[in-house]
Design goal:
Elements lengths: L6 H40 L3 H7 L33 H10 L3 H4 L9 H11 L4 H12 L11 H11 L4 H13 L3 H14 L4 H13 L3 H13 L6 H8 L46
Amino acid sequence: MDKPITHKQIRSIFTETAKRNAIEIMARTWRSLRLKSVYFSILALASISPAVLAGKNNSSWVGTDFEGKECNGGRQGYGPFDYLQRASLPGELAVVEDNHFTENVENLESGNTGNLTSEIHYTLSAWPNHHRALNSILKYRLQRMPSDERFPPAECYLQRAIKFSPNDPTPYILFGLLLHKFGNYEAALSAYQTATRLLPRDIVTQYNVGLTLVELKRYEEAKKVAEEVYASGFPLPGLKNKLIRAGYWENTSKGAEPSAIPQANASATEASPASTIPSEEDTSLSKSIKQ
């Protein structure tokens, strides 16, 4: 005959059962939480465009400034986003353009929420290849406006933009302009030529290639470029006049007035490259860039 179960034994059985139940509940809860965490992580990643995900790993600062100092614009904050993808990121673009890259900032008049350079830095930190912001930082550099030691110079932003979005022709064009203005003709030519491969229809950049070839005394190549440029009806006479003086062009007619072509900065002269950024139609984008 079985022995009767004591109260102590009964309490022990209930205690062990409760422990096993509690452990099983905790295990099920943990598995559920882990699955939910994975689920929400997948949702979060799916909501980010491939361009943004790629940019997260490609937004570091590269190169040196014109004094040989390493470019460093600090840690990444908001962004980065590719300006070529802005049609699919209107909200992210509005955060920057409505609050930081306003009209007065673009025109180098004053800041909006901070000082001028901090506003441009914020814009280019979030959108490294923002065309108009790059144009503004280029103008800031060329106009020799007061430097802000907290932020790198224009050449650093342009090198970062090229690394970030290597298939965007505009950073190459603007970097070429800056290098040209500072007399680094070999590097300027390389930047211009990359831009023309990406944007073959941009006659202004082809004109600048010709000017740079003249500076490098590569007159035969410059003449060939000039023939193509002027056959398209390009109005600026600077390249032609330089070739005339070098004995590589016949002085048969005068070019049109320099003001016949839109300028982003000051009017082009014979010693300067034509300064303009291509319309977004030329870069397969939908909305024209404000000049």
